[in-house]
Structure formats: C-alpha cells, structure tokens
Amino acid sequence: MSIPPPPGSRQPRGPYGPPPADRPQAYRPYGTPVSVNALAVAALVLGVFCFLPAAGLMFGLVALRQIRRSGQSGRGMAIAGAVLSSVGIVLWAVVLSTGAAHKAWEGVKDGAQGNESLSLDKGDCFDAPGGLEGDTYDVDRVPCEGGHDGEVFAVVTLPGDAFPGDARITGIADERCYALQDQYAMDTWAMPADVDVYYLMPSRESWRYGDRAITCLFGNTEAGIKLTGSLRGDPTTLDTGQVVFLSTANALDTALYEEPEKTPDDDLAAHRAWAGQVHDVLGEQIEALRGHPWPAGARRPVADLVDGLEDAREEWKRASTASDADAYYRHYDKAYGSVDGPATVTARKALGLAATPPAAGERESGDSEAQV
C-alpha cells in the first residue's frame, strides 16, 4: 500500500505522466479557456484566398510550432492554411512561367475597355461588326486583299492623363487624320469617290484603361459596303519618281486648299496674300521636279508639265499684285488653267499613276467618326 503525499504536494498529471523537466509546462488547470493561435487563423485566411501564399505557408509552419509549445488550439487551421498556401505557390509558379498572368490581365483590360483600337496599326484592314458609325466595341483584323470595313492609315497618340472630352478629341481627329491621309495614299487621283476618312476615338471608359489612340482609317461612305484591296500608296509601294511627283502635286494641292473663304470682291488683300503663297510653293515644286533624274519615258512629259507650272507661277505672281478684283480674276483663271490640265495627265500616264482627275468636290472632308 502506498501512502499518498501530503495535500498540496501533488503534481498535475496528463495521461502519460508529468512532463519532462526539460520541456516547458504545457498543462493548464482544469477549466482554463483555450486560446486560438492567431498565426493559424492568418495562415488559413491567406490559404483560402490564395493571397500572398508564401506568407500563408510561413504563418502555418510557425503556428504549428507555437501550438506544440503553448497548447493553443488552431492546429487544423494551421495545417489547412499551410497546405492551401503550398498549392497557391505552385499555381502562381505555373501562371508566371507560362505568361498566363499577362494574358489574363490584358483580357481584363480589353473587356473593361470594350475595344481593340490599341491593337490596330498603320496598314491594318479590319471588319467592325457594328459598322463604322456610332460606338464600336470590337474589330476583327482581316487581310486587305479581301472585303473589309476599314483600312488604317495613321494612329495618333494623345498626350495627358485627364480625359480631354469628346469634342476636343473629335477636333484633334479632324485636324490630324485629314492631314495625314495623303501620306498613306499619296495619289489622290487614285482614291475611289465613295471612300472617306473615318476614325476610332477613345471613350471616357477606355481612357481609364490607357487608351490614348485616335485610329485614322478609310471606309466606304455607304453603310454596309466594303472596301476591296489596299489603298496604300506611299514610299513602301511606289518608286522614287512616283513619290517625288506626288509629293510636289500634294504640296501644291495643300497650298490651293488654303484659298480664303471670302471672295476677292470682299477681301482682295487676303486673296493677294494667298496668291503670293501659291507662287512661292510652285517655285519649290518646280525646282524639285527639275532636279530629279526621271526615267527616259517620263522626261519629256515632266518637262512639259514644268513649263506649264512656270506659266502658272507667273500668273499667281501677277494676281498677288492685282489692282482690283477684276484683274485678280483674270490672272487667277489663267493660273488655274495649268493645274491638273493635259500636261499633268500626260506626265501621270508616263509615270504609271492614275490619269483621271477626280471630280470637283469629290473628296471633301466629312465628319465620320466612331467611338471605342
């Protein structure tokens, strides 16, 4: 028979006897509340949401060690958080190694943006399921050889962080797109009569996702009618002689386009000044035509054209000093007689360019836009 120790000398015992002397006391008096390890909770949360999986794994392992020493609850949460975080680390490694993260983010941006305007480049042809009028939410790039709704001839990038407003963007598109069209389709005589300039513009919503592009494009003026074949005619598709000829012709057309709105009867001074500007531009273009080494078949036709331009230049000079509107009109009519006349047609034929002058007013600017 054993004699029990005196009261107060008993040590609490667990199912396997007292703890070793070298281990921290892990026993609690009966009825003491058991606390939940905070790191176990954090590990479980990070593991479930797959957010910072490396931190979730670390918290889970540390929590298990603390629970063993302190006797706190939460072991199951720590294990679950560690396992889920380990799975999360593997998944992130796969996503990053395959580039899926970048693709997914681009998909999110495109979905929120509601358009693919940023993916269109100069020279691209595309179809727009909703047409070129109104809001455009999607475009499909297609070969230019077949039928297509639009052909991109320029992309203008807008500066700034704040959305400038629809009216401001439309004004920039009008100014820049019409100015850039002849750099892509240099031969204005070759442009079909039913083709005009359109543009895709950023919307307020797409601007928030980085869309800063005004996409300038050609499209048919008749809804539902597609373009066929590329309209591109620039140094990438033309020879040097054709580029020089068209550059001089387009520079002269630009100068002539600046004619004052008021008539010489109402504002003779403005017309005189404009006539002087045309005279100066003609001088530059004549010099360029004379200085180029033309192929044998085009030398004579180009020389005849230059002679006619010299006569026109002299008439513009006289118009710039006309004493009254009647005198101005006489020189004005003679000067215009040498523009796009028979000599121009002959020179164009010799250079393999379009030889049928466009009808008057055939390519006046419209107001064609789509917002993306």
TrEMBL record:
Residues 123-228 form the Septum formation-related domain. Keywords: Membrane, Transmembrane, Transmembrane helix. It comes from the Bacteria. The keyword Transmembrane helix applies. InterPro entries: DUF4190 (IPR025241), Septum_form (IPR026004). This is DUF4190 domain-containing protein. Residues 1-22 have a biased composition (Pro residues). The chain crosses the membrane at residues 38-64, 76-95. Residues 39-94 form the DUF4190 domain. The keyword Lyase does not apply. It comes from Streptomyces hawaiiensis. Residues 1-28 are annotated as: Disordered.
